[in-house]
Amino acid sequence: MDKPEHHIFVCASFRSGGDSKGACSKKGSGDFMPYIENEILDRGMNAQITSTGCMKACDYGPVMVVYPGGQWYGKVENEDAIDEILDAVEDGGVAGDHLIS
């Protein structure tokens, strides 16, 4: 497998003990994983997606982080927001409306 050009992390709010109690999980971040994966495949992006433990940015949840740029995106609450972020990743830019500054 070739190294992915982009790595997208989605907060799943897992805490010690394995419980997912945080804001991201409560707002459905886990439900976005299949949508993001399908979008990556449909767009032919060289990207990987990973769910994470709590990213400690609950005020902004759900949270996505895109590397190698290291952009942190918050309030990723629907498919439109995800599409805007993925569009920006494809274009080599930043989705400013969702960026956590």
Sum up the structure in keywords.
single chain; alpha+beta; Glutaredoxin; 3 helices
Give a quick summary of the entry.
With 101 residues, this protein is of the alpha+beta class.
Q: What's the end-to-end separation, in Å?
A: 34 Å
Number of domains: 1
**Which fold name corresponds to the CATH topology?**
Glutaredoxin
* Count of runs of 4 or more consecutive helical residues: 3
| Unreliable stretches | none
Radius of gyration over all CA atoms, rounded: 13 Å
- What number is the mean pLDDT? 91
- The CATH homologous superfamily name equals Glutaredoxin
Task: Give me the CATH architecture, please.
Answer: 3-Layer(aba) Sandwich
Number of strands: 4
Q: Which strand order does the major sheet show?
A: 2-1-3-4
Oligomer: single chain
Shape: globular
User: Secondary-structure element order, as H and E?
Assistant: EHHEEEH
Helix content: 25-40%
Q: What's the story with the biggest beta sheet? A: 4 strands, mixed
Structural account:
A hairpin with a 3-residue loop joins strand 3 and strand 4. This protein is α+β, with helices and mostly antiparallel strands and about 100 residues long. Helices cover about 30% and strands about 25% of the residues. The chain is globular, with a radius of gyration of 13 Å. The protein has one domain: Glutaredoxin (3-Layer(aba) Sandwich), CATH 3.40.30.10.
